[in-house]
Amino acid sequence: MGRMLSALADRALELGPVRLAEPDGNWRGAIDEDYVYWLALDCPGKSVNTINRDVLAELARHIDHIVDQKPAAVVIRSAKPAGFAAGADINQFVGASTGDIRGMLREAHLILDRLANVQARTIAVIHGHCLGGGLELALACDKRIAVSDASLGFPEVMLGLHPGLGGTYRSTMKADPLEAMTLMLTGKSVSARKAKSIGLVDAVVEERHVASAIEAARHDEIGSDSGSLKRSAFGLKPARSLAAKQMRRKTAEKAKKDVYPAPYALIDLWEQHGGSEKAMQEAEILSFSDLVETETSRNLVRVFFLRETMRGLRQGKSGIRHVHVIGAGAMGGEIAAWSAKQGFTVTLGDVSLKPMGKAIKAASKMLQAVLKDPIKVREALDRLIPDTDGLGIARADIIIEAVPEKLDLKRKIYADVEAKMKEGAILATNTSALPLPDLAEGLSDPSRFVGLHFFNPVSRMQLIEIVSHDAVSEETTRRATNFAVELSRLPAPVKSAPGFLVNRALLPYMAEAMILMDEGIPKERIDDRAERFGMPMGPIELNDQVGLDVALDVATSLRERLGGNFPETPAWLKKRVDEGKLGRKTGEGLYKFDESGKPIKKPVEALKDGSKDDPDLIDRLILPMLNAVVACLREGVVKDEDVADGAMIFGTGFAPFRGGPIHYAKTRGVDEIVSTMNRLAAKHGPRFTPDAGWDRLKG
Q1: Residues in domain 3-hydroxyacyl-CoA dehydrogenase NAD binding (predicted)?
Q2: What are residue 30's DSSP bridge partners?
Q3: How far apart are CA 344 and CA 382, in angstroms?
Q4: Strand extents, DSSP E, 180-289
Q5: What is this structure's pTM?
Q6: What phi and psi values does residue 100 have, to the nearest 5 degrees?
Q7: DSSP assignment, residue 566?
């Protein structure tokens, strides 16, 4: 039944007369027999639409025709199967002055205001992604019809901005204002049905019913009163001020104002001007153009382009349809579930039924959380097939090994698997530490063996390190890279080396935190400083989350293989591991954990005034991480500085608003960092010795 409904939902888009119309730039326009003017956005040469100056200038010409011809109604939708529009093209703001940006915005606002004031009923039909500027275009229409697969949102806050094409006031004045503010403050998207419940759209239909819904909208038979009472209440400033106070408090829990000014600017905007459309429009333009000039926004825009750069590493298709995962532990189970979620047929193998049962249960929970649609969850679970006999190996296009980090165990599995693999299939390992040349020993064809290092949890971490070695073929790495993008993940090509890139850079950060604790600095202070720098989690808590036993094993392995200056592990940490205090998974590690799995921390402000501190604390944590990334670039573990920055942001959460470790280093000044490291080396030892690769960054 679910597949039947999906098949019906995927019918061709209802485009009325523009299906046969010739494109005229970015739009196709035509009038149907009922004298309805149809406009389909279809940006040439792109799989998704974006809103830019050309799109809006051409829209203005169509509005001229509409005003002259006085149609019965106007329908605006996308001709792209992917969706309505992915948002505004942020390239147009890069390098522009504040005055230029304000000029562009005022020009765009005039066009959308003209659309909003057209005498005929204007109807936006939304399918797929409708984000940012695309949603602002739809909000300028009288009615919005969402196809059931639509996803709507304002992601601008992710770029250090807020909506700038009228979204701040049109959303809060047409939808439930508190829900609209939540959308803008979080950057999260909502489903079509949620959008209907908050008044953002007027109706939700299947694609096959779009024509009927347009007819109903023409005659004002559909509409949303959701949030009307709240709109009236929040037209008064005292009500907005009370709500704004709560919004600021909630926002402060996740983002500090000095680092992420955009959400606070949005709250101020609504509190001060939310009762007047014209006042809020002008304030939106000024606020948006000011935010574009902030360092936070510039760096978050850089992160956006880093993501696009990494996605752009894809060359063609992987040719992979069937994935076989060996090992139903936490990582293997998540890799299998995520692959099934992305549409691949997946067989999951393990020698025992118990972990298989746990993996399927965990997969169901994860899929419900990310898909939210019971039909889609059921379909994904149908694609995930338990396979204790390993029958899927012979049919799989890629076999991903995700068993414990034991060299002999992995080699034994490869010997069994390689004999069963079909021609052209790829053998991949999810190892996070073992050298690929060592793993490949004994393989008859090492050219099709590659590393696919996923990060935990797979459903949230965007990075996959594509690990090469001397014997792997270019075709294997190309297909593995393409597969990573097809999984909606970001590939980072790296060479097999101790810790690859991400773990090699992350471990010195985690290890230095242990040394700081050993010196008597309170763990809460260490974590707080790291989080204030912009890390998503402090290094002490991170050690507990990873597991002290795992962190100790990886640190020991890296120290043995890297030699040199890798920091020693305090003896008390080994003792804690021996006592079974391993972190979150045992309820106690460096912190104790409550029943919900959260660490029990003393408030930083409650620490004694005399408790130990170090003015170099943050440099002692962060600079060894930067030093390791520089070493990886020098050694060719990673070849591209942008990919290195992207990998650290998407693999470790390195403060996105700083633009990545290499970008941060160049912004701060390479000479200043090298000088600081030399000073720290003289004070604390050779682990702070600057890598020779810093000289290359000066140019």
Answers
A1: 322-495
A2: 38
A3: 11
A4: 189-191, 203-205
A5: 0.90
A6: -65, -40
A7: P
CA distance 582 to 590: 8
φ, ψ at 155 (rounded to 5°):
-85, 5
Residues contacting 423, CB < 8 A, separation 6+? none
Query: Helices marked H in 596-693 — which ranges?
Result: 617-635, 641-652, 661-668, 670-684
CA dihedral 30, 31, 32, 33 (to 10 degrees): -140
Q: Could you give the CA distance from residue 166 to residue 172 in angstroms, rounded to a whole number?
A: 10
Instruction: Tell me what pLDDT residue 699 has.
Output: 62
Q: What is the DSSP string of 486-535?
A: HTT-EEEEEES-TTTTHHHHHHHHHHHHHHHHHTT--HHHHHHHHHHHT-
Mean pLDDT over each residue of the chain, to the nearest integer: 93
Residues 112 and 67: beta-carbon distance below 8 Å: no
Which residue stretches of the chain have pLDDT < 50? 1-10
Q: CA 411, CA 438: separation in Å to the nearest integer?
A: 9
Map tokens 């007047």 to a residue: 276
pLDDT 10s digits, 93-140: 888 889 999 999 999 999 999 999 999 999 999 999 999 999 999 999
CATH numbers and ranges of domains, the chain? 9-293 (3.90.226.10), 322-498 (3.40.50.720), 503-637+669-698 (1.10.1040.50)
Taking residue 241's Cβ as centre, other Cβ atoms within 10 Å add up to: 12
Residue range 608-656, pLDDT digits in tens: 767 789 999 999 999 999 999 999 999 999 999 999 999 999 999 999 9
Query: What is the CA angle 347-350-356, rounded to 5?
Result: 80
| Rounded Cα distance, 404 and 409, in Å | 8
- Distance CA(659)–CA(302), nearest Å, equals 6
* Measured distance CA(497)–CA(150) in Å, rounded: 44
The count of residues in the chain is 699
C-beta separation of 309 from 286 below 8 A = no
Distance CA 85, CA 137 (A): 9
Whole-number pLDDT of residue 77: 97
Amino acid (1-letter code) at residue 7: A
Please report, in angstroms and rounded to a whole number, the separation of the first and last CA atoms in the chain: 62
Residues 567, 508: contact at Cβ < 8 Å?
Answer: yes
- Residue 142 carries which side chain, given as an amino acid letter? D
pLDDT score at 1? 40
Q: What is the pLDDT of residue 4?
A: 39
Of the CA atoms within 13 Å of residue 667, those in its CB half-sphere come to 12
Interval 238-254: pLDDT, tens: 999 999 999 999 999 88
- Can you count the helices (H) and strands (E) in the chain? 29, 18
Rounded Cα distance, 214 and 222, in Å: 9
- Separation of alpha carbons 581 and 590, rounded Å: 8
Of 577, 552, 692, the C-alpha closest to 635 is 692
Residue 626 is which amino acid? L
> The tokens of 222 are what?
């559909």
pLDDT at 373: 85
